[in-house]
Amino acid sequence: MSETSVPVFRAAGTADIEAVVALVESAYRGDSGRRGWTTESDLLDGQRTDAAGVSALLGQPDSLVLLAERDGVLLACCHIERQGDAGYFGMFAVNPDLQMAGVGKALLAEAERVAHDEWSCVAMRMSVIEQRVELIAWYERRGYQRTGEFRPFPYGDARFGIPRRDDLRFEWMVKPLAGAVA
């Protein structure tokens, strides 16, 4: 299978927890995250996730940690969850060395397909730190719209990282799925 071939998608299991944590941390934190463009290293220190957090996602009803692999190697992951008639998309991470190679775009499309085809969701929602303008623009190019709805960053909860600035907040984005009106 070539490096440009479509990845294989599958649901994560408990045996995948450590690999998922390592991937997420490498994509968002520290020097390894700086190799890719999705790093939050300038905004946050500390952890992005941990084994207990990923394990909890695996145990939730209407929740799926979706993996993208090639030849058994983890390339990317995300978490999707059914929330009423919408899906929620989060914990999206692509190996920093493979960012900009189409893996993330393919995984996002698969997550949208699962939400629509398997859960009958009419929209996909997500929250993005509003200071991540490049990431917001990437999602907009894939059909997501800024809603103007915000929620505060969970300051003081180290499970979400240690903020390097005091003005962080999340903006909600939404995309109708398969022609549905969100």
Automatic annotation (TrEMBL):
Gene3D superfamilies on file: 3.40.630.30
Keyword Acyltransferase appears in the UniProt entry: yes
Species name: Dyella koreensis
Keywords on record: Acyltransferase, Transferase
Protein name: GNAT family N-acetyltransferase
CDD domains assigned to the protein according to its UniProt record, in alphabetical order: NAT_SF
One Pfam family this sequence matches: Acetyltransf_1
Domain (N-acetyltransferase) ranges: 7-178
